[in-house]
């Protein structure tokens, strides 16, 4: 497996862990506000292969205790479970970021206890999900199944939504709440514009709006936090 990026140390990406973050290329979503679009459109070149990364990791024992795996969409890679297994065999905890569109692979990963923490993006309410993901249509059954898998998994996990204007409005958060009703934890994170964002016209919501959205979701989810505040 080829890795398209490596952050050698982070205190932010994996809660309660000193971790590194690896970035895998490719994604089946085309979110127009994505910060890592170069991983989607193929312009980002691989920086190392799996063996080089594991060699790096072997030299970080005692300095790192976790590995966060993101993308792109890691679950596009059918050999992902093998990589996770090798990382765990070295004694590192694993966090997986996913868009939730590959429930079969996610189920395999969860059943084989290959991750310690997972973060799944909830793009928007059902009627706006495809548009927010940059697609003409979407199979929401796959999203709902991944939500259920995580909620029944017994591992620590979070749902999270990047809030972007004009893609999100107040009524959307009732729909998001219904999707993840009964979940333990949901994070709202405000969109931040960067040079790598492929399209213009997106902006962060006002802080007051985020507080309104948080209050709506608190009717569905036990803990709702605004990340970055």
Account of the protein in words:
The protein is of the alpha/beta class. The protein has one domain (2-227): Alpha-Beta Barrel (TIM Barrel), CATH 3.20.20.70. The protein contains seven helices and ten strands. Strands 2-3-5-6-7-8-9-10 form an eight-stranded mixed β-sheet, with helices on one face. The protein has a two-stranded antiparallel ribbon with strand order 1-4. Strand 6 (93-98), helix 3 and strand 7 (117-121) form a beta-alpha-beta unit. The longest helix is centred in the middle third of the chain and has 12 residues, at 140-151. The chain is globular and about 50 Å long. The mean pLDDT is 94.
Which radius of gyration do the C-alpha atoms yield?
17 Å
If you average the pLDDT, what whole number results? 94
What name does CATH use for the topology? Answer: TIM Barrel
Strand order, biggest sheet?
A: 2-3-5-6-7-8-9-10
**Low-pLDDT stretches:** none
Q: Give the termini separation.
A: 36 Å
| Tally of individual helices | 7
Please give the CATH architecture: Alpha-Beta Barrel
SSE run: EEEEHEHEHEHHEHEHE
Give the key terms.
TIM Barrel, alpha/beta, 10 strands, 229 residues, 28% helix
Task: List the topology elements.
Layout: E1 2-3, E2 5-10, E3 19-23, E4 48-49, H1 50-58, E5 66-70, H2 80-89, E6 93-98, H3 103-111, E7 117-121, H4 129-132, H5 140-151, E8 156-163, H6 172-179, E9 185-190, H7 207-217, E10 223-227
Parallel strand pairs: 3-5, 5-6, 6-7, 7-8, 8-9, 9-10
Antiparallel strand pairs: 1-4, 2-3
Helix pairs in contact: 3-5
